[in-house]
Every structure is written in structure tokens, then in C-alpha cells.
From TrEMBL:
Keywords: Cell membrane, G-protein coupled receptor, Membrane, Olfaction, Receptor, Sensory transduction, Transducer, Transmembrane, Transmembrane helix. Signal peptide: none annotated. Pfam families: 7tm_4. GO terms for cellular component: plasma membrane. The keyword Repeat does not apply. The chain crosses the membrane at residues 29-50, 62-81, 101-119, 139-157, 204-225, 237-260, 272-291. This is Olfactory receptor.
Length: 318
């Protein structure tokens, strides 16, 4: 038993996305560019909602929280991933479990927030007269808090169960982050219970939130079809299509990653899917909302005008 304990590992090596030197250089520039866009775009959305009174409604407060989560979601993985492009990417066992925990906190919180945003659209479209009383400031805060609580609770399952496993031989994680499936693959004991738990918990969480989101639109679509005004239908379609696009991108990649088998082939696909929903999707979210939402576009224009006026005022007179 003592000999076994002495062989337990205290750190891992993250293998990254690829072993090809030329591809590493390309991916380094690619990831860095999209990460900057991610931070700038989502920070802009948060700033607009905080500064512009027009955007301080429940819909945009939820959008600001989604942008905030997106920034954290990318930040928990990208900086560590960037290290792997230049040197051997070593991470301690505690650091690995910590990254795993926060990665799933932000991912699960985003899933719940997307469901809440779908409910917000349902109330606004189907029950407009009761919207203020149903989706007031207090209700909005409670829903956002519930999203974070759900994400934190769900993540504890993966983190605690993984931290109890012994790791004593292979220390190379075939991923660019400490995700639960590739990590438990390295354990030197039977992990069938862990794999089943991950699949069931992830399936329950993702399918519940996805079903609730779709349920909102099952009620929304017939209501929209009854609207005679083409302008009214166009405005609702613009808002809902932005939300639906984000939902499809997020769940499309997440479900492929966590509901599939833990084979070597699937782990390779998981790395590509993880790259999409940790970097590409958070970057596209603010762009989609900015392009499809009139209020956000107007707020951006006002911000640009204020910046130009500020520059003119500061410009020294000749």
C-alpha cells in the first residue's frame, strides 16, 4: 500500500490541441485574436447595459450576465492553453481540479442563463401586460442567482468525484484543459461509476435546460404568428433569432462533448468541440446580439458619438 501511495501523481501535462509546430503557431495567433475579440465584445455589452438606461431592462441585464460568464468561461482555459503553445504545459493536481470546477461552473451557469433568457422572451411576448410584475428587478436577481447556484452545485459533483481518484501512471491529459472525461481516463482504478455519473449529470443538466428553452419557443411561435403587424413580427423575430442562434451553437457542441462515449476517437473530437464552445461561441455571442438587436446597435452608436465628442473637446485649439 505504501509503495502504491508513493507512485501517486501530483501534476499532469496538458497535451494541447496539436503536436505540429507550424499548426501551433497558427492556432496561437488564432486563439489569441479570438480571445481579444471575446473580451472586447463581451466587455462592451456589459458596459453598455451598465451605462445606458435604455438597456437596463431584465432582457439586457440577463444578456450582460451572459457576457460576463462568457468572459470568465474563456479566461479559465485560454491563458493556460496559450502556455502550451510555447512550452510543456504542466498543471498540478489541485490546479487541474480547480480549473475543472470553474470550467463547469461557468459552462453550466451559461446553460441555465440561456433557459432563463428563453423564459424572459416568453413572458415579454406572450404576457406583455404582466411582464413588469413577473420579471421585475427582484425576480431577475433571483433567476441570475439560481443560475450561478445551479452551476456551482453541479460542478461540485465532477470536482469532488474526480479528486477522490488515484492517479499513478500516465500523466498526459489528451486535452488543452482539465476536463472531466480525459482526466478520469488517467485514473489507475475502475472509473465506470464516474463515467456514468458524468454522462447522467451532464445529460440531465443539458437536456433539462435545452427542453425548457425550447418549451418557451413552443409557446412563443404560435403567438408570433397571430401578430398582424409585419414590423412587430420582425422585431420579435430579430430578438428571438439572436437567442436561438446562441442556444444552438452552445448546445450543439456541448452535447457532442459530454453525451458521447469516452473512447480515444471521441476524446479527439471533444478537443475540437471544446475549442468551439470555449473560444468561438463566446466571441460570436456579442456580435450576434449587436448585429440583430436594434437597441444594442443604437447604444453602440451613442457610445461612439460620445467618444468622438470627448476627443474633439480634448483636442488642443490651434
Amino acid at each position: 500500500m505504501d509503495e502504491f501511495n508513493n507512485t501517486l501523481l501530483n501534476d499532469f501535462i496538458l497535451m494541447g490541441v496539436t503536436d505540429q509546430p507550424w499548426l501551433k503557431k497558427f492556432l496561437c495567433a488564432f486563439v489569441f485574436f479570438f480571445y481579444l475579440l471575446d473580451l472586447c465584445g463581451n466587455l462592451t455589452i456589459v458596459s453598455l447595459v451598465v451605462r445606458d438606461p435604455v438597456l437596463q431592462s431584465p432582457m439586457y441585464i440577463l444578456l450582460a450576465n451572459l457576457s460576463f460568464v462568457d468572459m470568465l468561461f474563456s479566461s479559465v482555459t485560454v491563458p493556460k492553453m496559450m502556455v502550451g503553445f510555447f512550452t510543456e504545459n504542466i498543471i498540478t493536481l489541485k490546479g487541474c481540479i480547480t480549473q475543472m470546477y470553474f470550467f463547469h461552473v461557468f459552462g453550466c451557469t451559461e446553460a441555465v442563463l440561456l433557459a432563463v433568457m428563453g423564459y424572459d422572451r416568453y413572458v415579454a411576448i406572450c404576457q406583455p401586460l404582466q411582464y413588469i410584475s413577473i420579471m421585475g428587478k427582484s425576480a431577475c436577481i433571483q433567476l441570475v442567482s439560481a443560475s450561478w447556484f445551479t452551476g456551482s452545485t453541479y460542478s461540485l459533483i465532477n470536482a469532488i468525484m474526480t479528486s477522490q481518484l488515484p492517479f499513478c501512471n500516465n500523466r498526459r491529459i489528451k486535452h488543452f484543459l482539465c476536463d472531466v472525461k480525459p482526466v478520469i481516463k488517467l485514473a489507475c482504478k475502475d472509473t465506470h461509476v464516474n463515467e456514468v455519473t458524468v454522462t447522467m449529470a451532464s445529460g440531465l443538466m443539458s437536456m433539462t435546460n435545452f427542453s425548457l428553452t425550447m418549451l418557451s419557443y413552443i409557446y412563443i411561435i404560435p403567438h408570433v404568428l397571430k401578430i398582424k403587424s409585419s414590423k412587430g413580427r420582425s422585431k420579435i423575430f430579430s430578438t428571438c433569432s439572436s437567442h436561438l442562434t446562441i442556444v444552438i451553437m452552445f448546445y450543439g457542441t456541448a452535447m457532442c462533448t459530454y453525451l458521447g462515449p469516452s473512447s480515444e476517437t471521441s476524446l479527439e473530437k471533444d478537443r475540437i468541440a471544446a475549442l468551439l464552445f470555449t473560444i468561438i461561441t463566446p466571441t460570436l455571442n456579442p456580435i450576434i446580439y449587436a448585429l440583430r438587436n436594434k437597441e444594442v446597435r443604437n447604444s453602440v452608436k451613442k457610445l461612439i458619438k460620445r467618444s468622438n465628442v470627448f476627443r474633439i473637446c480634448l483636442k488642443p485649439k490651434s
